[in-house]
């Protein structure tokens, strides 16, 4: 008889006639894990499809050419008009909205966009009241403006009120409800205000050296190839500081953020699937242990081990398909059902539909997980002997399966990890997650074995004599047939994921709260003109509430070449060469401890341009002393030799420049200054009032507000990962319930023996409760260790921050684990307590 003869199918079919009673946990674990991965993947695919479909609207054109500190020159404008059917010119910068209320000035930070008559090329600006944009921005007595409702509410403005930007008055004509290209700008520090370019001409906000960005949106004729246009534009203008974007990736920051969050949540989903895998293995093992007599009977009748293996493999394979179908259905329909809620939370268009790609990925993960976790208990059916029919077959089989099965399981695990690494797109995090899951499973398994050994030893300790309930509970935890491994694995891994998320969230919040009052400045002041610097310093340095003031010249430049080669060819996608970066100069050398390599130039240096580069970023790019950089500033190329590497700290929210040039390199270049002011909180309003009153073009950025926006983004990230961790924990609870249900038969016999020996119901219930609490607390303690290790790894290697153990969430997780195990154990304790001992013991004769 071969294993693939009709016999194994007949056996499988007859076994399935008994229904799905033994496989409910199996199906629930598999379906829930697959549904979580499918749902996250479907939402990510819907966002990417929406960004692709609406790329031109999000960007504001089919393509965009942008410049810093300047408008396009005639040659650049001629090129744009030559390839585009329409061109829209806009300018983007930060400024202060100033309102005069009976002599009292109120201010608010805003992100200003100056537009021409062609704006927007695609999409529509929705206003309240519903008037055309050109009418809202038209100049009557004064230029018109539209504003984000958040800023209107913050400044208590009404339609028709007058406010100033710089030295120009504007009339608020409408609230801006939607901005079609709002997602393309990335992270902004203030709500949006839109005015016309002509209206800005009298504001004195676009003076030479002021930090602003011009954007030229291009509407390309049908059939115009974006790649060809990009190649031509880069070849002609990239070295002059031009940056190119097009509708193929209209909101790169948003798209990358969504991709990263989606990939990370898929990895969290894989952790949940691993928890479900423990439940799958437990369910299959419990089912097969109940079939030992059947297997022994089949072997007595001449069935070979491989025939029996094939029969149960086919049976479980069919149920796996059912679980996958349930999970995929739920994962596909859940995003559609929640689409209004999801769309309301995201500032990008989302094309909800059923996407086969994420479903196939989830099915692949689910099938591999089910196969990995079912092969082990299935392979052990070979160890069942026909003699088991004539012995007490209730005890579980403990021997390892044959090496071929162990090697197969390891090989499939490697395939699963490789697929997760490849498909997630974040290989480092994927490998770290896989290592964390495998390490956690190993730690939890070893901990379960240690808990069993310790409990067995304690149950015999003299100090516990007379404490029957506790000794019985410890003996059950450490004895044969203990459910310790299942409980610690299932609940522990779920709690470990939740603990890691809790530690990361607590450390991020603590870092912001810890660093802000002691390190961060009160304000960043930007766009300080050279002739305004001394009056500014006179105001802030003479204020007794100000403890420190730092200033630096400020320009923006693009690193275009490194040692004569294109910067991107040398540095790849490093953030320093992506777009323009802050550049400064200094007339004095920094403290010697800041210089890590090389030598600073003399204060009166007048030779060829020299540069100092941030040491950490230089090491990442591969720059060394003597390398030559070409930096484009205001359309002019400056080649400078790296003379020194310096330690630059960005985490304190102070002034930090990756690139510092010798003063003679920037002689005559228009520029402004930036300043940081460290002051007592009660003095901040007066400083802002005086500085802005004397120089309305100076923009003040309150650092606490900026950090609050970062904190909000981090809280959103933490919330998203918490949802993933909650799904993992839910799977762990299902597995826990399955383990408790699987152990009910053993507890019935145990309760019968204890009753026969004179134990009361209260004593038996106390023993069961103590057993559950011990296992839950143990799982929680091990989960805290694994979660703390995971939190440390993420904070150290991903967030590049310090880590501090947070005890409050740790205690909550330990108590939660003990309570969850206690409740699940008690839920399956009533039947053993109600069963008559004689009936149970007579059935075991």
UniProtKB/TrEMBL annotation:
InterPro entries linked: ABC3_permease_C, MacB_PCD, Membrane_comp_ABC_pdt
Annotated transmembrane regions: 261-288, 309-342, 362-379, 400-423, 429-451, 723-743, 764-789, 809-830
Domain of life (superkingdom): Bacteria
Keyword annotations of the record: Cell membrane, Membrane, Transmembrane, Transmembrane helix
GO CC terms of this entry: plasma membrane
All residue ranges annotated as the ABC3 transporter permease C-terminal domain in the record: 268-380, 726-833
Membrane-related topology note: Multi-pass membrane protein
MacB-like periplasmic core domain span: 27-235
Localization: Cell membrane
Annotated protein name in UniProt: Drug:proton antiporter
Organism: Roseicyclus marinus
């Amino acid at each position: 008889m071969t294993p693939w003869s009709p016999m194994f199918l007949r056996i499988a079919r007859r076994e399935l006639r008994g229904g799905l009673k033994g496989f409910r946990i199996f199906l629930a674990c598999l379906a829930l894990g697959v549904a979580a991965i499918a749902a996250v993947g479907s939402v990510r695919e819907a966002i990417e499809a929406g960004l692709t479909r609406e790329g031109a609207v999000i960007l504001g054109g089919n393509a965009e050419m942008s410049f810093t500190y300047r408008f396009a020159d005639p040659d650049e404008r001629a090129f744009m008009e030559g390839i585009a059917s329409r061109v829209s010119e806009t300018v983007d910068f930060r400024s202060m909205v100033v309102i005069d209320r009976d002599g009292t000035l109120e201010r608010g930070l805003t992100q200003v966009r100056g537009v021409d008559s062609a704006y927007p090329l695609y999409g529509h600006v929705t206003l309240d009241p519903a008037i055309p944009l050109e009418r809202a921005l038209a100049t009557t007595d004064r230029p018109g403006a539209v504003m984000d409702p958040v800023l209107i509410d913050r400044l208590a403005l009404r339609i028709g009120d007058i406010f100033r930007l710089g030295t120009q008055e504007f009339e608020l004509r409408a609230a801006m409800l939607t901005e079609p290209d709002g997602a393309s700008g990335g992270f902004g520090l203030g709500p949006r205000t839109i005015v016309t370019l002509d209206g800005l001409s009298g504001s004195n906000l676009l003076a030479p050296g002021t930090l602003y960005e011009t954007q030229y949106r291009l509407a390309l004729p049908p059939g115009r190839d974006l790649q060809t246009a990009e190649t031509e534009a880069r070849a002609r203008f990239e070295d002059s500081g031009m940056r190119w974007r097009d509708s193929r990736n209209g909101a790169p920051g948003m798209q990358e953020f969504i991709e990263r969050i989606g990939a990370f949540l898929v990895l969290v989903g894989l952790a949940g699937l691993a928890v479900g895998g423990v439940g799958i293995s437990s369910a299959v093992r419990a089912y097969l242990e109940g079939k030992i007599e059947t297997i022994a009977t089949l072997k007595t009748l001449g069935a070979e081990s491989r025939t029996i293996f094939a029969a149960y493999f086919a049976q479980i394979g069919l149920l796996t398909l059912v679980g996958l179908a349930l999970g995929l259905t739920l994962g596909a329909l859940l995003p559609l059902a929640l689409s209004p809620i999801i769309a309301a939370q995201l500032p990008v268009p989302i094309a909800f539909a059923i996407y086969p790609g994420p479903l196939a990925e989830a099915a692949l993960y689910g099938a591999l997980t089910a196969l990995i976790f079912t092969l082990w208990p299935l392979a052990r059916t070979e160890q069942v002997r026909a003699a088991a029919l004539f012995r007490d077959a209730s005890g579980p089989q403990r021997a390892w399966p044959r090496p071929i099965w162990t090697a197969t399981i390891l090989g499939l695990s490697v395939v699963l990890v490789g697929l997760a690494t490849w498909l997630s797109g974040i290989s480092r995090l994927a490998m770290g997650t896989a290592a964390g899951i495998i390490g956690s499973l190993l730690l939890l398994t070893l901990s379960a074995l240690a808990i069993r050994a310790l409990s067995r030893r304690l149950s015999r300790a003299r100090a516990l004599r007379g404490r029957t309930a506790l000794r019985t509970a410890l003996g059950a935890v450490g004895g044969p047939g203990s459910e310790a491994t299942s409980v610690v694995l299932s609940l522990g891994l779920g709690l470990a994921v939740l603990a890691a998320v809790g530690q990361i969230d607590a450390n991020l919040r603590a870092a912001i709260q810890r660093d802000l009052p002691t390190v961060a400045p009160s304000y960043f002041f930007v766009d300080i003109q050279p002739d305004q610097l001394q009056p500014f310093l006179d105001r802030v340095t003479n204020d007794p509430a100000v403890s420190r003031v730092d200033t630096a010249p400020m320009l923006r430049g693009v690193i275009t070449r490194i040692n004569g080669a294109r910067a991107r060819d040398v540095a790849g996608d490093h953030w320093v060469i992506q777009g323009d970066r802050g550049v400064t100069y200094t007339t004095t050398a920094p403290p010697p401890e800041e210089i890590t390599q090389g030598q600073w130039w003399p204060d009166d240096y007048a030779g060829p341009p020299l540069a100092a580069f941030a040491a950490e970023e230089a090491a990442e790019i591969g720059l060394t002393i003597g390398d030559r950089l070409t930096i484009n500033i205001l359309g002019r190329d400056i080649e400078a030799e790296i003379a020194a590497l310096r330690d630059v700290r960005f985490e304190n929210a102070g002034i930090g420049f990756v690139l510092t040039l010798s003063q003679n390199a920037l002689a005559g270049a228009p520029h402004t200054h930036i300043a940081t002011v460290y002051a007592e909180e009660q003095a901040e309003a007066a400083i802002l009032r005086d500085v802005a009153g004397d120089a309305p073009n100076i923009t003040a950025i309150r650092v606490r507000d900026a950090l609050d926006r970062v904190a909000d983004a981090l809280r959103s990230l933490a919330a998203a990962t918490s949802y993933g961790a909650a799904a993992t924990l839910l799977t762990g609870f299902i597995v826990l319930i399955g383990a408790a249900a699987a152990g009910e038969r053993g507890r019935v016999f145990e309760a019968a023996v204890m009753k026969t020996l004179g134990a009361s119901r209260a004593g038996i219930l106390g023993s069961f409760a103590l057993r559950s609490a011990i296992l839950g607390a143990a799982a929680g303690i091990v989960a805290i260790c694994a979660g703390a290790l995971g939190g440390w790894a993420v904070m150290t290697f991903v967030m590049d921050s310090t880590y501090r153990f947070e005890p409050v969430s740790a205690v909550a997780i330990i108590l939660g684990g003990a309570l969850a195990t206690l409740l699940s154990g008690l839920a399956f304790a009533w039947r053993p307590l109600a069963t008559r001992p004689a009936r149970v013991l007579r059935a075991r004769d």
